[in-house]
Structure formats: structure tokens, C-alpha cells
Amino acid sequence: MASLRDIRRRIKSVKNTAQITKAMQMVAASKMRKAQEAALHGRPYAVTLNRVLVTLRDTVDENIHPLLEKRDEIKHELVILISTDKGLCGGLNTNLFREAAAYDREKTQFISIGRKGTQFLARTKRKMIADFALKDHPSFLEVKAISQFAIDKFLAHEVDKVTVLFPRFVNTLNQLPTALPLLPITSLAELGLAEEEGEKTSSGAGMNFEPNAHSVLDAIMPFYVHFELYQMILGSRASEHSARMVAMKNATDNAKQIVKDLTLEYNKARQAAITKEILEIATAQLALG
Amino acid sequence: MSTLRLEIVTPEAKTYSDDVDSVVIPGVEGEFGVLPQHVPLLTQLKPGELRVIKGGEEIRLAVGEGFVEVADDMVAVLTDMAIRESDIDESAAEDAMRRAEEAMKDESLSDEQSAAFQASIQKSVAQLRVKRRRSF
């Protein structure tokens, strides 16, 4: 049986660990709330963007825009992998990388957002054409640089399809690695118009376009792509923090259980020692008497 | 007197939402003013200065790229940046611009890095333009 002092030392160290994981859990919880709020702040933008696109759809032939072009043969695919910068978030990255590993090694190029993803791609020797570092609260302008990069690649016919692979936020306990197509934009009709609110969708009939409808459409389409990617990144930030929160909660619970077990063991050892001491004194007295 | 509803939204937040008398917007085809009863219009926005006139007072905002929808006395401005004049930190904007410009000179930059710096320069220029105006 381990000595009393050893057990005491272990209890202390496990308690320290529990304190740290508890603190990380709290931090992750508050960051998660913030990340979710940030995602919600995008709502008015999404609604207005949808309204404008609906207006445009009535006016312009939607099938001519290069970003909508569906290519029959997918020679090269670009995958934007959104992972985290730090670990300690449970199986979040592992699950994501399992999906990433399924892509064809020859055909697929990667853009990595997040340090863990970069390390993974380097380790498995995948084709990585760019690596972006984003802060915890990415600004729209930073994200725009990334999606613009992807758009340029797509328009230059270097890649025929752009997919985003990210941990989609389902709920606090559940984050699903999801691959969503970013380019080509599937169809204007599907553009997130699920909640086609009965809001006064001013019909395109009386609308004036400056300089003309086509160039306005040209200008708006990239914005749609930027915004899509921005929302996905915000979503994966929320996933990261909630995954970390859950992982840290488990760690804290486990640490507490260990402390409990060790304390029991410690008390047993202490009692055994006391009993032994009393026995020794008693035998000594008997021998003397 | 009738008023105009102005909403400025960025992907990060709804920056401005109020009833105003008129608004002057930097469009790709040049600056244009919008008064109540304006015809429905959809156009692109250029980085620059957006002026809001409300009750004789003028508010200036620096805006980035985006577009504007005018319909039914409602002006919706969608842009990637909108900062009020009073919130612009001139020296910070100058610093950011200098840093970005210096970085641009470094030719070893990859495509994506230079794109990011370009965006940063554009943003700083728009902010400075709005801020400096008053002193001229």
C-alpha cells in the first residue's frame, strides 16, 4: 500500500487539476455564449441579403453567373477545413479529420483554418495550398480574404468545386462534422430561402438597377459566398467552445471521483497505522507488566 | 415631413437603424442622395463616406464594400464595415494602414496574405477619409 505521504501528494495534485479544468470549463461556457450571439447578429444581414436576392431572381436570368456554373467533371476539389487552434476539446478535431482523410489524395487540395488542421494536413502529407490563422472573434473582413481566395481559384478553373468541412453546431452536446458545398452556388432558388418570410418582398418589376441588373448580381454573388463562409466559421467557433466545455466538465467530474477514491484509501491507511501503533503500545505494556 | 427608414447592417451587427430625413450614399456610379419617395433602386456601394441627415444634424459613417437597396421609403445598406465618425481612431487607422502598406512591399507574400492586407488598407483609407474631412 502506498505510503500516507504519497497519497496525500496525489490528492493535492488531482485537486489542482480539477481546479484548472473547472476554470477552463467556465471560460469555454462564456465563450460559447458569445460565439452563439455573434452568429445570431448575422440574422438581419441574412434577411436583407435574401430579400435582395429574391428581387434579383425575378429580374435576371440566374443561370449565367460564373459562380453558379456547375462543372460536369470534378478534376480538382478544394476543401476548406475549419478546425481549432487549441486542443482539449474532446473528439471534435479527431472526428473532423476522419472525414477529411476520406477525400481523394490526388484530387483534393486543402485550405486550412486553425492550427490543429494545419498540423493534421502536414502530418498526413496532403496538398495544402493555404493556411489561414483567425482570431477567436474573426472579423468579416478577415473571412472575406479567405473566401475571395477560394472564389479566385474557382474562377481560374484551378478547382471545380469548393467544399467546407467544419464541425456544425447541433447542440451543446453534439457537434457534427459536416461538409457543405460553397461553390458553385447550387441555385439562387435554394439560397437559404427556407424561411421565405412574407415580408414585403418588393417585386423586381419596379426596381431600378445601377449600373444594371447584371453587374449588381455580379457584385452580390461574392458577398453571398463570403457571408456563407463567415457563418460557418462562427458556427464552428461555437462548436469548439461547447465541445471544450463538455470535455472539461467530464475531466472535472473524473478528477473529483479520483479525489474521492484516494481520500478513502488515505483514511484506510491512516486508520491502519493508528491501530498498529496502539497494538504496539499494548503489547509493550503487556510484556513489561 | 415624411421620413425615410435607414438600416445599415453588417454581418457582425445591425449598426444603424433609425428614421432619417435623407441620406447620401457613395455608390459605384458616384455619390447619390436619397430622399423620401425615392424610386426603388438597387446598386453597389463603394468604400467611402455615408452621410445621414436627421433633424438638421449630419452623421458621418465610414462604410466598406456592399450594396444598397432602396424601396418603399426604406433604405437597406449591406456592407462589410460601418463605423461612425466619432468611433474612428485616426492614429490607429493610420498605423494600420502604414503597417499594411509596408507588408505589401514585401514581395514574398502569398496571394492570400496580400489579399488580407489589401482589405485592411481599403478599410483604413475609408476611415481616414471620413475623419479628415472635418479639418479641411
Could you characterize what this model shows?
The complex is a heterodimer of chains A (289) and B (136). Chain A has 289 residues and is α/β, with parallel strands linked by helices. Chain A contains 6 helices and 6 strands, in the order H-H-E-H-E-H-E-H-E-E-E-H. Chain A starts with a helix and ends with a helix. In chain A, 57% of the residues lie in helices and 15% in strands. Chain B has 2 domains: 4-85, F0F1 ATP synthase delta/epsilon subunit, N-terminal (ATP Synthase, domain 1); 89-133. Helix content of chain B is 29%, strand content 43%. Chain B has helices at 90-105, 111-133; strands at 4-9, 14-20, 22-27, 30-34, 41-45, 48-54, 57-63, 66-71, 74-79, 82-84. Chains A and B meet through helix 2, helix 5, strand 6 and helix 6 of A and strand 5, strand 8 and helix 2 of B. Strand 6 of chain A pairs parallel with strand 5 of chain B.
